[in-house]
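Sorry to interrupt, but I need a hand with the structure work. Could you write out one complete protein record for me, on any chain you like? Could you add the entry underneath, on a fresh line?
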Amino acid sequence: MEIHILDMIQNLRTPIGDVVVPLITRLGDAGIIWIILTVLLLIIPKTRKTGGIMMAALLVDVLLCNVLIKNLVARTRPFDVNTAVQLLVAKPRDYSFPSGHTAASFASVTALYLAGEKKMWKAALVLAVLIALSRLYLYVHYPTDIIGGVVFGSLSGYLGYKIVEWIQKKKIK
């Protein structure tokens, strides 16, 4: 069923999409856009707490998704099932579930939202959705990998927020 959804998306490919979508997905490679944003937020005194929340969220995300869940589930990627698909990006070497790009994106969005960054989280959400959808267009994830990335990423963002909140309470005592 999921492979059929990906095949339908392949029918929507365009020459412009084939150039733009890999650029969008590259923003999420190794969480780079979110790491850069975290560093910038940590540098600015006014946003340092938000940066700390994002840093904690991304650390939880990498441990939960990339170290634990991907290796436990060990799901084969769709391009290994349907080898006829022409990939527009290099073949990822790790497992498919959950989508790491999506998880890091939604960990960041959730962290920004919980930190109270009213404008920033909305822009981040738009980018997170685009990155998640790019993974389907590029045939490197199944739809349930994306859903898993949203769920585990959001959970990571929440846990990152709670960790920073707990640390701050410990400092006050």
